[in-house]
Amino acid sequence: MSIIFSYLPCLAVLTSPAGGYEWVVLVEETVVEMSRKVRVLCWVMTHPGNHERKAKHVRDTWGKRCDVLLFMSSKEDPSLPAVALKVEEGRKHLSKKSHEAFRYIYEHHLDDADWFLKADDDTYVVVENLRYMLHDRNHSEAVFFGCRFKGFMSGGSGYVLSREAVKIFVEKALSNPKRCHLRGAAEDMSMWECLHSVGVKPGDSRDELGRWRFLPFTPENHLNPGFFVGKYRWLWKYTFYPYKEGPESCSDTAISFHYVPPNLMHALEYFIYRLHPFGVQHQPSISAVVVKPLS
Ligand SMILES: *[C@@H]1O[C@H](CO)[C@@H](O)[C@H](O)[C@H]1NC(C)=O
After folding, report:
1. C-alpha 295: how far from its chain's center?
2. By three-state DSSP, how is residue 14 classified?
3. Of the four listed, 24, 44, 190, 268, which is most buried by Cβ atoms within 10 Å?
4. Do 91 and 178 belong together in one domain?
């Protein structure tokens, strides 16, 4: 085995010619630098009745960390800012609203970001971890990530499309209603079907230990074993990847949670960004190892 230190100060390449593989070891500083360059537009599904009640709490908490933040509504509100899409309000029009939101972004913001996140006004997103997951993915490939269920990405925990995915969704899927149906309230199923119809691939958003990063409930629901019985038993029917209840359910680099009311958004801001145990420091670490065949 030989160790070659590259010109990047924090990148070490270890090669193992006998095995025919090389390991590229990136220490955290490099990855942090790379993730900062990932540009994310976030759009949040809302409606006029929720501008004050919910949307403004998204703006004042996690939303401010997106490169571009837009609220999709049917009434304009420059203070959020909210866009007035020409759609009817009500649950049964959610797919239409999602389609029109992406059309609006395609027409006005396609060059402003590399990745395009859809979230609800009760989704909480750790934007740095979203950038981290995306830092080594290619936004020119037609791909999307989220909480993968069987046949859709669960809408409430949000999902993120590459720029290429947004482009072909609007240019090709939306103009083909035979293969891209509106499915009323099931906007996540409609998006999956439409994206699938134009070859956009679902990506794997789990961390290196297989733990979920897009989570369909709140942290306390996931971390407390026994939540997914009774009323919430349906989760097991939909899971595409194995799910472990309890402490191992959530990734250390979790990206999103759903059903988060405004008060919990503010609490999460405090827990994630301010509270820390005195005297305990976060240790920079080797945070990414890429193994690839020797060329
Ligand atoms: C990203 O994907 C595009 C389209 O498939 C490809 O042309 C390009 O070479 C890829 N870039 C990298 C850095 O892999």
Report:
1. 33
2. strand
3. 44
4. yes
What pLDDT does 280 receive?
Answer: 85
- Tally of domains in the chain: 2
Q: Is 49 in the same domain as 11?
A: no
Distance 7 CA to ligand 1 centre (A): 23
**In this structure, are 21 and 71 located in the same domain?**
no
Q: Is residue 198 domain-shared with residue 63, that is, in the same domain?
A: yes
Residue percentage of the chain with pLDDT more than 70: 86
Q: How many angstroms separate the alpha carbon of residue 162 from the centre of ligand 1?
A: 12
Write out pLDDT tens, residues 249-288: 999 999 999 999 999 999 999 999 999 999 887 765 555 5
Share of the chain above pLDDT 90, in %: 77
Query: Are 22 and 42 found together in one domain?
Result: no
Specify the residue with its C-alpha closest to ligand 1, atom 11: 138
Domain enclosing residue 8, as ranges: 2-30
Tokens for 131? 């950038």
Ligand 1, atom 6: closest residue by C-alpha: 140
**Which atom of ligand 1 is nearest the CA belonging to 138?**
1
Compute the distance between CA of residue 293 and CA of residue 70 in angstroms, rounded to an integer: 42
Å from CA of 142 to ligand 1 middle: 11
Ligand 1 shell residues, CB under 6 Å: 138, 140-141
Q: What is the CATH number of the domain that holds 57?
A: 3.90.550.10
